[in-house]
Amino acid sequence: MEKLIRALTKEDLPSLQAMETGIEDDYVIRVFERISTGNNKLFGLFSNDQLVSVGGLTVFAKQYAMLGRMRSDLRFRGNDLSTHLMKKVMEEAFKMPEINWVGANTQEENIPAQRVLKKIGLTEHHISYGASARTLSGLEKGQAVWKPVDSISAKRQWLRRLYVESSAVFPYECYYPFPATEEMFEDAKVAGWRFFENDKGDRVLITKHDVKKYNFLHAIYPFGDVMEQDGLWDTISFARDELSKEFSPGLRIWMDLTKQQAASLPDNHPFSLPSPWILFGKSR
User: How far is the C-alpha of 14 from the C-alpha of 132, rounded, in Å?
Assistant: First the structure.
């Protein structure tokens, strides 16, 4: 079986549409042009001129490459096609001189994808729920909103202490967390993020806007005591309401929750908690 791996172009869309992946309404087909241009690359493995497996990468913050969009033709599975392809995609990512880290985020229930990522040399870094909610009903208590942090230097101090000094995983976007570096936090981005401190000044909440099909307030709280801090949920709700004025009413809320944080939520919590996401990665 003659195999060829190359970057896909718009001329390859019919070949992608002809694949039998078992995925109904595959977003890779719907947004093919966007995910195969710019900071996105999509690669295909061809067998005797037939496209049998695809996978891609996206560059974030100039130095991180996230692998994904893996799918293979059902008629050709069992031949390690995804492993063969994704190893090549990872190599292509590391050929970019600015890329210092390559990884992938896959759900805990997706055992086949985990096998592929381990085979190509990626190791597990972090596990979290991508928790989303339309409302915080049942969590708000009518308590005082935390104090805003406005200066870039103060925001950077929090980021440095919580993330950079330990290379902790930072949720850069919904679905896309990365081991933190100083370079990740460009002034223009940090200036647009809102930071709130509690009265004691020993806790911080970070909020920012993101779009993943829906508009989200992305709320980042890197401490385990989500149910013990007075005003936390009221502050998240306040930040959501403020952001809704700029984007759309009923803005949804996204939080990256550890298993410990998720387990501490009350039984009637409003969050959707699908299978947790496991972040795999490898440094240059």
Answer: 35
Give the number of other CB atoms < 10 A from CB of residue 75.
Answer: 9
> Measuring CA to CA, how many Å separate 131 from each of 46, 134, 179, 269?
37, 11, 20, 11
pTM (2 decimals)?
A: 0.92
| Alpha-carbon gap, residue 238 to 270, rounded angstroms | 17
Neighbours of 61 (CB within 10 A): 18
* Tokens 């401190």 found at: 197
- Our measurement of the distance from residue 117's CA atom to the centroid of its chain's CA atoms, rounded to an integer in Å, reads 16
Q: What is the pLDDT of residues 100-130, one digit of tens each?
A: 999 999 999 999 999 999 999 999 999 999 9
Q: Are 216 and 209 in contact (CB under 8 A)?
A: yes
Strand partners, 102: 65, 282
- HEC assignment per residue over 179-227: ECCHHHCCHHHHHHCEEEECCCCCCEEEEEEEEECEEEEEEECCCCCCC
Structural contact between residues 29 and 17, judged by C-beta atoms closer than 8 angstroms: yes
Given a contact cutoff of 8 angstroms between Cβ atoms, the answer to whether 82 and 252 are in contact is no
> What SS3 state is found at 75?
helix
Alpha-carbon distance of 279 to 284, in angstroms, equals 17
